[in-house]
Amino acid sequence: MAELVDTVLFDIDDTLCEYRRPGAELLALAFDREGVEPFFEVDEYYARYDTFIETTDSVEILRAECFAGIAEEHGRDPELGRAVASAYATERNHRNVRPLPGSREAVTSLSHDHRLGVVTNGPPDTQAKKLDEIGVADAFEVVIHAGYDAPAKPDPEPFHRALSALDATPDSTVHVGNSLASDVAGAQAAGLKAVWLSNGTDLCVDSDCVPEYTLDSLSDLTEHPWNPSVE
Q1: Mean pLDDT, 10 residues at a time, the chain of 231 residues
Q2: Contact indicator for 104, 132 with CB cutoff of 8 Å
């Protein structure tokens, strides 16, 4: 018989909350502030994010290194990339976030009979602001900042650290996140069951990461999909 789930870990970005101003909008403003024509799109930045997450001390430095590398690859001066990154940082407000539908209700509901924690690929200063802004910071007993406190997801170590802090076991824990590559793969590598927040995206049939549970919205999480009584 499977062990009862008594612990739930969450990702933050695009799981519990999202920025009100998307990165593509800020990048366009940053290029405009520097008076240069856009020479890359925001997805190119996101794809490079994990390259620097474990070697930089803040998201601002990480972004500057990403933009400098991208600029050089496009035949531009790396210092131009850093200038665009600085302009981007001027526009970004880490408190300007909104909770995803059902996230606060799910956290509140689960807090009554589960121990809760966070495993996020993000720096402490920015992620704390987001949790505080959406009003759920006090619900979590531990927040592991992967890439800072531990290797970045999908490495299993940040999940193991969260389990240790909560005195929980992998069999009694699920992790909720929106990324197949980091959340689902990382949770499963640590022996946890993965709850994938699809946000309406279909699971690719060729995906190497197949979550144990899939939700379209965190509104569905209040029903505890891992509870055998509703499976």
Answers
A1: 83 96 95 96 90 83 94 96 95 94 95 95 92 97 93 95 97 95 95 91 68 91 68 39
A2: no
**Cα dihedral 78/92/53/16 (nearest 10):** -150
d(CA 13, CA 212): 21
Q: 211: which residues sit within 8 A by CB, 6+ positions away?
A: 180, 184, 194, 195, 196, 203
Amino acid at 195: V
Q: Which residues, 6 or more positions from 9, have their beta carbon under 8 angstroms from its beta carbon?
A: 116, 117, 118, 119, 159, 162, 173, 174, 175, 176, 187, 192
Residue 93, token pair as written in the block: 């407000």
* DSSP helix/strand/coil, 90: helix
Instruction: Write down the pLDDT at residue 110.
Output: 94
**Tokens in use for 29?**
């403003």
pLDDT of residue 230: 38
Question: Are the C-beta atoms of 138 and 161 separated by less than 8 Å?
Answer: no
Quote the tokens at residue 86: 């600085």
